[in-house]
């Protein structure tokens, strides 16, 4: 793990790639415009919106963040960007950071289940 420029109370740096998602349902009247909000400890990041991304949005966005001591999960939410109303929460997930990433700085890619209106872990999958 690359440890230069690490703030106090952090154990290292983490790179997170939000590649894409496969959602089970389109909740918009037209095609959804999804984006992701991700939280690592107190750090919060957002992807760009994928216009008309609908059930198969692609972001291919990389975030570089400090990994605070004691943080071993990433929280993410997928929203549908709306023009005239509040953005709608579509799906969410709590992803445990694999030990190999924390301890040895290994790269790990996988699809993780999303929860939402369809139920726990039934809203689709996200590629991190």
List keywords for this structure.
128 residues, mainly beta, eight-stranded antiparallel β-sheet, 1 helix, 8 strands, 5% helix, elongated
Structural commentary:
It is a single chain. This protein is mainly β and 128 residues long. Helices cover 5% and strands 53% of the residues. It has an 8-stranded antiparallel β-sheet with strand order 3-2-5-6-7-8-1-4, with no helix packed on it. β5 and β6 form a beta hairpin. It is elongated and about 45 Å long. The model has no long low-confidence stretch (mean pLDDT 91).
Question: What's the layout of helices and strands?
Answer:
Blueprint lengths: L9 E14 L10 E7 L2 E4 L11 E11 L4 E8 L7 E9 L2 H6 L6 E6 L2 E9 L1
Antiparallel strand pairs: 1-4, 1-8, 2-3, 2-5, 5-6, 6-7, 7-8
How many beta-strand segments? Answer: 8
Overall residue-averaged pLDDT value: 91
Radius of gyration: 15 Å
User: Which term fits the overall shape?
Assistant: elongated
Q: What class would the helix/strand composition place it in?
A: mainly beta
Q: How much helicity do the residues have?
A: under 10%
Outline the biggest β-sheet: 8 strands, antiparallel
Uncertain runs: none
Report strand %: over 45%
Widest sheet: strand ordering: 3-2-5-6-7-8-1-4
Could you spell the SSE succession in H and E letters? Answer: EEEEEEHEE
SS element count, helices: 1
How far the N terminus sits from the C terminus, by CA atoms, comes to 18 Å
